[in-house]
Amino acid sequence: MTDLRPIEPQGDTGLPRTYLPLGRMVRLLRAQIEAATGASLTFRSPGPPALWSATAADGKAVLRVAPGPLLSPYDSPETGLSSLRLSYAGRPLGGEPPSPDFGDLLRARGLAGYNRFARSLPDGAAELFSGQARPALALSDPQTAASGAALRSFLTRLLAENPGTHFVAAGPDGCPRDGAPTDPRLTLIAGPADPWLLFPLAARIYVARWDAACEAALAGFETHCPDPAAGPRPADAAAFLALRYGIGVHGFDPWTRRPIPLADAAERVAWLRDRFLGNDRRVVLVGVSGWKRAALDVFATGPAGPPLHTMIADEAVALARAQGGRVQAWATRCPEQLPRLCAEAGLPFARIEDGFLRSVGLGASLEPGASIVVDDLGIYYDPRVESRLARTLKEAEFPPGLTARAAALRESIVARRLSKYNVGLEGVGEDWPADRRIVLVPGQVEDDASVLTGSPQVRGNLALLRAARARNPDAFLLYKPHPDVEAGFRPGAIPEEEVRRLADRVVGGLSIVDLLDRCHHVETMTSLAGFEALIRGLSVAVHGRPFYAGWGLTEDLAPGADRGRTLSLDALVAGALILYPLYLDPVAMKPCTPEQLLDRLSEARAAAPPSRLALSAVRHATMRLRYALINPVIRRLRARRGVRSESGR
């Protein structure tokens, strides 16, 4: 039997100070293993090997690394694991006994394995356990399911020792068919199944090893292990818990990979699991460019699997029907007939667009975004149809806890000097007058859908600049070209002589945050710069109908802007930055909160030297060629698919 006395990595224990990281999995998890053991994984000095394998009681001087029992649906060696099981020379390495209430936490959250199972059992699963002679459950725990030989041995033994019993083999990570024997008394549930829902259905519960019985014991069900080598049955639920989650098991933050108490890791895994379960149907994504797909796939993956991609409306509907799924289309790439086809087919449909805290770099330069909105009503930049954001802001309650969180988020954005794209040079305004009102006029991309649909009277940068000067004749007027326009990617440039006649300074290439720090007032059509000015306490005049206008916080100049409700600034922030978008940690490639994304954006901006566009000269030239030569062809192909050109992107 395995010696279960732990080896503590601290102090002078005689443990190696270095290990040889053998295999790709170990190298991917190097930082986590080093943090848990206090040792270095390196080839520069001799040491025992560190191997990716299940813990073995062979006594060899090997550091064995295996997935721990607590994992999020998004975990992998590439993205980091929320727990690891470590052993050295056949004995558990480090870790602590679980706290007395840890079992209650697991039971309340319903956690097990990678937590990729749905809230309900797969179709037909419950019927397998119906009838007078209910079958027994052969619990395929994650470690057993990962080994075809172990799974086959477990199920073969059960069938041989229980000749009159029917079995259903299932588990939280599924039960692979290629590892199971063929027998009429054995039925497999191949996909992940919630073990907490299976336990009360089974006549008896069998496990391959006693630690796999932990969740059943916590739920109050007796289990049976047919393998004599597994040793005696643990005495009670606490003993089962200690066997599975105790010594040798290390918890980690799923995003930063830093060691944390196992209970904290469980709460974070539960948050990620709930986010995963939000995709309760298979998602078909339409119009998503290849460079965006890695991020969008994370947002759209759920228990039914990763999203399917297409560019064609009819194909999207056919795929969604076949999968019992839903359709989501990139808003500016949505075939015009797609919403109607989805409605006729009874399929849920939503539009996708970038969120308001996006990246360090421009979308036009193919920098992937770290936030999106998924809108099942309209889209936030088009006021012609009510969006989910508009309805939320109009109807939702904003309790004190939510607005307090929004206030803290707003203050953090301001303190960290963050914006949507986080590009531009710093240090401005040394020669600006101190005795004049400074007004910022942010230019926009003139064929952008937000301008075409949301600014009915002032519909171009020159018209905006003229209106701003007419309204502020004595102000020191700053004109900031949109970064995409300034880069030459998108239309909206104003002739130089017109700019010089109307504006006191052209502040292209400068950071929007630095500009807002020096301004008193902003005049805009629909630019997000107006929202960024609001959260910094500036006055904002709006010539269009952006999402932040009409709530009593802006001077609204477009007809029909009033929303019929007055909001506080923090209620607006709560709706726009907390309730409406989804966020992605671009390093861990896992969903995250807006607060966590602020950390990543701050780190990325600090790592990149300030520049006008946050891209190199070669990348800039390449992108200009792409927009000049390739994009016109792409737009013609989209038109053939029914994508109406409300945006030149």
Compact overview of the structure:
With 649 residues, this protein is an alpha/beta fold. Strands 1, 2, 3, 4, 5, 6 and 11 form a 7-stranded mixed β-sheet that branches. A 7-stranded mixed β-sheet has the order 13-12-14-15-16-23-24. One of its GO terms (biological process) is polysaccharide transport.
Molecular structure report:
Among the domains are: 18-97, no CATH class; 102-245, Rossmann fold; 400-615, Rossmann fold, CATH 3.40.50. Helix 3 (102-109) runs parallel beside helix 10 (262-277), helix 15 packs across helix 22 (569-579) and helix 15 (400-416) runs parallel beside helix 23 (594-607). It starts with 17 loop residues before the first strand and ends in a 9-residue tail after the last helix. The protein is α/β, with parallel strands linked by helices and 649 residues long. The strands form four sheets. Strands 1, 2, 3, 4, 5, 6 and 11 form a seven-stranded mixed β-sheet that branches. The longest helix is centred in the C-terminal third of the chain and has 24 residues, at 617-640. It has 24 helices and 24 strands. It is elongated. This is Capsule polysaccharide biosynthesis protein. InterPro entries: Capsule_polysaccharide_synth (IPR007833).
